[in-house]
């Protein structure tokens, strides 16, 4: 029997909380692996935490340095000397459709290791990642392993709304991050892909704590409800606007930037209803993308929203940021968006999108100095690759959701 098929069958049969035990058992049997560890990336994307006897787990390691960090950052298997005589440890990225979950570390005897085995183990890590995503519906084990500290209740609500922190397709690659990761309030992002479209929503709700999180939850779910009903982008904004106004009668509102990318052509429909903004890196030049601003959602009864259109080109990088990024002032009073943001975009141009938000947030902290952050910070990075043949998808049903 094919070894990967055996692993996949074992994982499908395992209890949701017992995936690591199952993969340890099957890898010991198939590859003679004496040691197998699973490390999950934390919410801040700074450490990798071993899955162990939770809530107490083993010592975390860096997500940026060391052998596991190299595998996680490069998204490539990284083999090195194992902890036992004549052994090799392969550190393998655990990633699902571009969403970086963590690293699987597998130690095998040297006499049972070669390039084919490394490739097989990389496929095992991918299969494990898919099973973790399914298992998270039924167990908190892997979510707990992502936490370096306790989340605030507001942050818990916000993280539960997110589709992931990165994703990739032939036409684009996305990476996103929220800060402070364990105490976020009103900033959020959402995306959905179909045969020929990517829909992206970036939100910035009023207030702090639970009130801000509940307001954002209402906005995100209203937008999803409208999108899944098949409404166009302008009507999605109108329906969400009515939902928020109906609940709060104008006392609270949500800033939203809605975008719908047509994958074959690069045409983008946009509804700019608030403070999230866009910077574009094209042919080495960074510039802010100006759009026609409209009212935030929920401010007035029966607001009407319209779309505008622009175009992305293969090679474009778009950076979407909240006011908790571009409005941050240095000790000398210089706003981050005046010069420092463009410099950060240039400095990170060679990084893949999932690594860009973390790197820009690090630059932002240096710009802010010793002053504590007063607002959430949201960054979403999109690399537009385009569809090589430029053709519409044929024979596939488009289903936003």
From TrEMBL:
Q: Mind listing the GO molecular function terms for this protein? A: protein serine/threonine phosphatase activity
Q: Which domain of life is it from?
A: Bacteria
What keywords tag this UniProt record? Hydrolase
Give the EC number.
Answer: 3.1.3.16
PPM-type phosphatase domain: residues covered: 169-384
Q: InterPro entries from the entry?
A: Bact_Sigma-Reg, PPM-type-like_dom_sf, PPM-type_phosphatase-like_dom
Signal peptide stretch: none
Q: What is this protein called?
A: PP2C family protein-serine/threonine phosphatase
């Amino acid at each position: 029997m094919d070894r990967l098929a055996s692993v996949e069958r074992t994982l499908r049969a395992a209890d949701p909380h017992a995936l690591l035990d199952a993969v340890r058992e099957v890898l010991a049997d198939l590859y003679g692996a004496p040691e197998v560890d699973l490390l999950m990336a934390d919410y801040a994307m700074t450490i990798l935490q071993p899955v162990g006897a939770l809530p107490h787990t083993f010592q975390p390691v860096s997500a940026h340095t060391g052998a596991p960090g190299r595998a996680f950052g490069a998204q490539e298997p990284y083999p090195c000397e194992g902890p036992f005589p004549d052994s090799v440890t392969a550190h393998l990225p655990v990633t699902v459709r571009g969403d970086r979950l963590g690293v699987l570390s597998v130690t095998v005897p040297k006499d049972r290791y070669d390039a084919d085995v490394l490739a097989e183990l990389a496929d095992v890590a991918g299969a494990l990642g898919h099973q973790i995503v399914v298992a998270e519906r039924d167990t908190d084990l892997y979510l707990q392993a992502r936490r370096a500290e306790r989340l605030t209740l507001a942050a818990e609500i916000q993280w539960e709304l997110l589709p992931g922190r990165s994703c990739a397709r032939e036409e684009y690659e996305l990476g996103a991050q929220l800060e402070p990761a364990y105490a976020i309030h009103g900033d959020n992002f959402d995306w959905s892909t179909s045969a020929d479209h990517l829909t992206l929503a970036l939100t910035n709700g009023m207030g702090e704590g639970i009130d801000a999180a509940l307001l954002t939850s209402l906005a995100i779910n209203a937008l999803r409800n409208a999108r899944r009903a098949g409404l166009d982008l302008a009507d999605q904004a109108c329906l969400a606007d009515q939902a928020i106004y109906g609940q709060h009668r104008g006392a609270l509102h949500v800033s939203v930037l809605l975008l719908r990318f047509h994958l074959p052509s690069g045409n983008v429909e946009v509804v700019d209803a608030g403070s999230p903004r866009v910077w574009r890196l094209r042919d080495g030049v960074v510039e802010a993308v100006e759009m026609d601003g409209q009212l935030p959602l929920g401010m007035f009864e029966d607001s009407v929203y319209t779309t505008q259109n622009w175009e992305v080109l293969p090679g474009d990088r778009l950076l979407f940021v909240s006011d908790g990024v571009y409005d941050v002032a240095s000790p000398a009073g210089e706003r981050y968006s005046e010069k420092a943001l463009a410099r950060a975009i240039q400095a990170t141009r060679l990084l893949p999108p999932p690594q860009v938000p973390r790197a820009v947030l690090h630059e932002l902290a240096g710009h802010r100095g010793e002053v504590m952050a007063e607002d959430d910070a949201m960054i979403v990075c999109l690399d537009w690759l385009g569809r090589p043949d430029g053709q519409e998808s044929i024979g596939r049903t488009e289903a936003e959701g």
